[in-house]
Design a protein that fits this description.
The chain is mostly helical. 74% of the residues lie in helices and 0% in strands. The protein has five helices and no strands. It has helices spanning 2-42, 50-73, 80-85, 88-120, 137-158.
């Protein structure tokens, strides 16, 4: 079973890298579109009004999925300071409790994010011509990634594999 968990971790490592690469590409597109907006406004005297709405949407698609990856890499929502102050016995229990709470948060984000996607899919985003539901898809992605990566942490702990990300205090 340890080999299966290690294989899962390898696959999730590729997924996390893919999310980071995709977020980087979206950031590059965001910068290019903002340059276009400035050029249009000050050189062409014809501001492309869609850029501002697209930039707001792009920021959601960068920040939220990367936050899910941050859970895996332990650079987001970590309780390292509290863990370091605890004796070894309660440290393990608090770590598991924090992971379970984070899993529940990911579940809520995915579930309620999907409800928002469904509720707003019939409304359009002005200037972009797409469904407002697309604004909430990153919330679903973040919640799903959070649950997936927390489950990976729990499985690694259960089968005695070393923790991922920053060195854990346990």
């Amino acid at each position: 079973m340890r080999a299966a968990v290690a294989a899962l971790s390898a696959a999730l490592d590729r997924l996390a890298r893919g999310v980071i690469l995709l977020a980087g590409a979206v950031l590059v597109a965001l910068v290019v579109s903002l340059v276009w907006m400035v050029f249009g406004r000050y050189v062409l005297n014809d501001t492309p009004t869609w850029v501002e709405k697209a930039a707001l949407l792009a920021i959601l698609y960068v920040a939220l999925p990367v936050a899910g990856v941050g859970v895996r890499e332990r650079f987001h929502m970590a309780v390292e300071l509290v863990l370091a102050a605890l004796p070894a016995a309660p440290r393990a229990a608090v770590t598991i409790a924090a992971d379970l709470a984070l899993f529940a948060l990911g579940f809520a984000m995915a579930q309620w994010g999907w409800a928002l996607v469904e509720n707003y899919r019939t409304f359009g985003i002005p200037l972009l011509g797409i469904s407002q539901g697309w604004q909430y898809v990153p919330l679903v992605i973040c919640g799903a990634l959070t649950m997936l990566f927390v489950a990976e942490h729990l499985l690694r702990r259960l089968y005695g594999l070393p923790p991922l990300g920053r060195p854990a205090s346990d």
